[in-house]
Amino acid sequence: MPRVYLRTYGCQMNERDSEQVAQMFVERGFTITEESEDADVILLNTCSVRDQAEQKALGNMRHLGKHRRHRPNLVYGFMGCMAQSRGQDLIKDVPHLDLVAGTQKYHRVVDHVEEIIRKKEAAQMDDLRFPIVDIDEEEESQNTISSHVDKNFQISEFVSIMQGCNMKCSFCIVPYTRGGERARPIQDIVDECQRLVDSGVREVTLLGQIVNLYGRHEFPKVDGKSPFVQLLEAVHEVDGLERIRFTSPHPIGYKEDVIHAFSYLPKLVDHVHFPMQSGSDRILKKMRRPYKAQRFIDICDQMKAVRPNIAISTDIIVGFPGETEEDYLMTKAAVEHVQFDQAFIFRYSPRKDTPAAEMEDQLPERVKEERNQDLLKLVNEIVGRKNEEHVGTIQQVLCEGPSRYNKERLSGRTGTNRIVIFDGDAERMAGKLFDVKITESTGYTLYGDPVLSD
Questions:
Q1: Which of 100, 132, 188, 392 is the most exposed place for a label (fewest CB within 10 A)?
Q2: Distance between CA 173 and CA 274 in Å, rounded?
Q3: Local structure of residue 222 (DSSP, 8 states)
Q4: Three-state DSSP class for 294?
Q5: Bridge-partner residues for 314, per DSSP?
Q6: 254 & 379 share domain
Q7: Are 382 and 400 members of one domain?
Q8: CA triplet 88, 81, 103: central angle to 5 degrees?
Q9: Pairing mode, if any, of strands 41-46 and 31-33?
Q10: Are 258 and 372 in the same domain?
Q11: Distance CA 386, CA 380 (A)
């Protein structure tokens, strides 16, 4: 059987896309391998949000090209956002590349790979390429790929509820690589969640580029509730499902009905990943983020009023074009007010064909790095203190199985998305919700002892 090595860069949406592509390969008789040395097909699912992600993918693909020396028929391919944005140029830049498949063409990747394999086997020539570039938008791809959900599931799974984005933030390339907003029907999503639960999943994360704007063009409000809240209520009714997460929301879609949902839907976890990007109104306007910093802070305060224990994580960009020291200090003040439970801080990097890349007053890398390190220090202090406050408490944890870094121990997450490491029997405890007494905190990780009844 041909073997496929598939590596993913970027967001949870990319991870979900890779899972679905892997399943389609399995259905065609391929096997998935974790070792590139064993592979007959090497695919990288790429991200274009930051230049560093693109450079990592390009560097890895060039490095993996060494396997072609011993296996001339090996197939190499890029998928995802970088494939969508760079297209034909990638074929020119990477001499051994055979396939470039954009974000709308995941459902055709297996067909393309099989076609390339057939041509290579028929030609029987060393270093022969039959490059395919397939990046044209195709509206039906969302429904086509979402139907592939039969696999060996984990305890927690991603469920894509929509594709695309209409917001066009000045720094972001996603609307150009994933197209406009397109939502799946509620019943299709509920059916997928039920199939996942029937296969052992206990937690789902609903995915969308701007998840709380789900269905705003396709479906009406009902009793004052947005389509997104209607979806939350419908998924909440899935028997056997223990937890619901969603990512990533946008302040423009964070209306009262979304906040209120946390008061009557107990399966919604005590955690929201809520990108702020900047605490300066002037920079938010340049970013084309249509809200003011105080509006973002008010939403966070309202969420805490509804769920006092809720954890809020965020994304922040420092060093945006024209960001002054005063702008940066406003961002720092917002972080101090909200007291985020986690924050992903990024130095601004220009993305080709985005408005921000053409703006004047691009900041020196030295300034970006100074602000990045300064804000990271503040966030680490906040997170470390909050995690230390958990020592001695009892936390409900969903066991996900063996720890990623120590297979002799188990790992799980609290409702607030904190990782907890503990001892136990994976076969008996994986997929179960139970209490853990926290005994130690080291940075971002908690350690504890399960509190189990007979």
A1: 392
A2: 19
A3: B
A4: helix
A5: 343
A6: yes
A7: no
A8: 90
A9: unpaired
A10: yes
A11: 10
